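quick q for whoever's on today - can somebody do inverse folding on this one?? i tried earlier but teh output was garbage lol. tokens:
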């Protein structure tokens, strides 16, 4: 679904290189690729050329990459977790989580109506199990497709507002079918990564789970239980992955798998989660038992969270490095749910490829750029010698490496023409400092496949001749100045979809949760004061942990 503008694009101005250094360049984009890069400002004369000449206080970055996001939950409000948990299997089946997030999501999806006007009356009636027969079967099926489109477009719009141009697949992890993208590239569409259609990127929720016939205690009263004795069972996804590795990675070109998501024993010293430790131990043992374990080196495997690994054991670090296994670090979500996270400096010093991921709206960051800013705060709070250039690499070059060295995350000839243009506080401010101090209100535009698809409205009215939709004024002060060009073939009305989401959320919040003031997360972090307050709270909790 990702499309090109069809017109050549020239960007003249300050460009950020792989080390975060700035220099004036002229970038020519043709057919969605960077065709040439020349030093200085070089006048070009091409038919139908779009010229973006940057102001002195603007700089072009490579598009950001987010390898960990649960997009179907990204319209939801912040979740007030009732406990600090040991691992993910506890809160996933907690009654409060099920009621406030899982059932909330199912409520919206069950009651979504394709043609919005008049879909809901004063009594809150819509498409339910009881009255569904009043709607033609095709209409209900189309509504299901439309609600998935809503999740996809709104999540990708949140991402693109923060400079993201490539993210983990947008709809339903562990779905091996052909999955659509809506605005930006995602890992569920191999052709958008420059891969043959037969080369799948496998996104996995779990390789193992507690069981069989065992339900982890989900009460907050048991949040600190010793989990080391829980029974463990393989999920079919693990067998799929092992079979692919054993056969020379013939099925999956790359895999992104949640593993050992729980208390790390790093910030909470001496208190690692037992089940998470065993989860990785069993994973590693199964790989060693393969007749051809050396194929793991070319599996392009990425482990998401991976907090429960024993990073004080050098053989664990060697295993990750020697098998080219990447780690996705999500410090915001880790700290909210577990008050712990990985020893990132240890991984970097050992040569392990580390990426950043935003996770999801209930307990994570708005987009991966925000995750980078929190990672900077985290490293400073712990006096970790991690540079701004290293952090930039975690959302550009490193995830591209994790995916098997796809042509993304850098501004180089032959790479995907994916960028975002940021306004700095002044022309003299270093680009990497601006990345830490500015917010998504300062994004002039985001470009995917050579197509300017999001940014300031005046750019679209003065320079581009494309259709666009305004971000609704109800989203906030910064959002009022932004517009998005959504592929017309999607037939998607942003204002209408947001209105329907809000109506359904208002009804569920008031009638089921008895929280009439509960609100959906806003599209831009700079407009989302509740979200920003949550991030400040996490920072204060980090201070308490470090005392």
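ok took a stab at it. sequence:
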């Amino acid at each position: 679904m990702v499309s090109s503008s069809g017109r050549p694009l020239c960007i003249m101005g300050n460009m950020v290189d792989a080390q975060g250094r700035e220099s004036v360049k002229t970038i020519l984009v043709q057919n969605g690729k960077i065709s040439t890069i020349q030093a200085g400002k070089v006048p070009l004369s091409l038919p139908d050329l779009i010229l973006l000449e940057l102001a002195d206080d603007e700089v072009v970055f490579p598009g950001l990459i987010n390898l960990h996001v649960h997009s179907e939950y990204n319209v939801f409000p912040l979740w007030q977790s009732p406990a600090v948990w040991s691992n993910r299997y506890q809160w996933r089946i907690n009654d409060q989580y099920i009621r406030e997030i899982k059932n909330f999501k199912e409520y919206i999806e069950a009651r979504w109506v394709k043609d919005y006007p008049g879909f809901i009356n004063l009594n809150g009636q819509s498409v339910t199990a009881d009255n569904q027969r009043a709607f033609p079967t095709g209409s209900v099926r189309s509504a299901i497709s439309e609600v998935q489109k809503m999740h996809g477009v709104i999540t990708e719009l949140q991402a693109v507002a923060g400079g993201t141009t490539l993210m983990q697949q947008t709809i339903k992890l562990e779905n091996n079918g052909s999955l659509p993208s809506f605005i930006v590239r995602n890992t569920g569409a191999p052709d958008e990564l420059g891969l043959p259609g037969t080369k799948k990127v496998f996104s996995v929720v779990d390789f193992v789970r507690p069981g069989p016939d065992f339900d982890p205690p989900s009460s907050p009263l048991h949040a600190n239980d010793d989990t080391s004795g829980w029974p463990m069972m393989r999920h079919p996804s693990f067998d799929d992955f092992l079979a692919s590795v054993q056969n020379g990675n013939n099925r999956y070109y790359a895999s992104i798998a949640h593993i050992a998501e729980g208390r790390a024993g790093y910030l909470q010293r001496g208190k690692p989660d037992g089940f998470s430790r065993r989860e990785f131990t069993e994973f590693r043992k199964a790989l060693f038992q393969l007749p051809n374990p050396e194929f793991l080196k070319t599996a392009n495997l990425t482990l998401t969270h991976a907090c429960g690994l024993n990073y004080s054991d050098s053989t664990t670090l060697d295993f990750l490095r020697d098998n080219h296994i990447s780690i996705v670090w999500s410090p915001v979500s880790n700290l909210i749910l577990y008050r712990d996270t990985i020893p990132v400096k240890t991984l970097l010093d050992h040569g392990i490829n580390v990426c950043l991921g935003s996770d999801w709206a209930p307990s994570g960051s708005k987009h991966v750029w925000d995750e980078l800013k929190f990672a900077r705060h985290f490293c400073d709070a712990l006096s970790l010698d991690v540079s701004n250039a290293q952090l930039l690499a975690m959302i550009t070059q490193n995830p591209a490496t994790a995916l098997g060295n796809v042509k993304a995350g850098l501004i180089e000839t032959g790479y995907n023409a994916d960028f975002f243009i940021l306004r700095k506080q002044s022309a003299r401010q270093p680009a990497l400092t601006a990345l830490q101090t500015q917010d998504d209100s300062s994004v002039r535009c985001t470009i995917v496949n050579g197509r300017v698809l999001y940014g300031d409205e005046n750019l679209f009215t003065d320079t581009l001749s494309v259709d666009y939709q305004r971000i609704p004024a109800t989203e906030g002060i910064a959002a009022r100045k932004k517009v998005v060009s959504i592929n017309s073939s999607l037939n998607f009305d942003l204002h209408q979809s947001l209105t329907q989401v809000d109506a359904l959320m208002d009804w569920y919040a008031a009638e089921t949760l008895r929280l009439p003031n509960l609100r959906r997360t806003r599209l831009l972090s700079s407009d989302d004061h509740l979200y920003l307050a949550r991030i400040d709270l996490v920072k204060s909790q980090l201070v308490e942990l470090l005392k």
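fwiw The radius of gyration is 23 Å. also Residues 137-161 form the longest helix (25 residues). so keep that in mind when u check it
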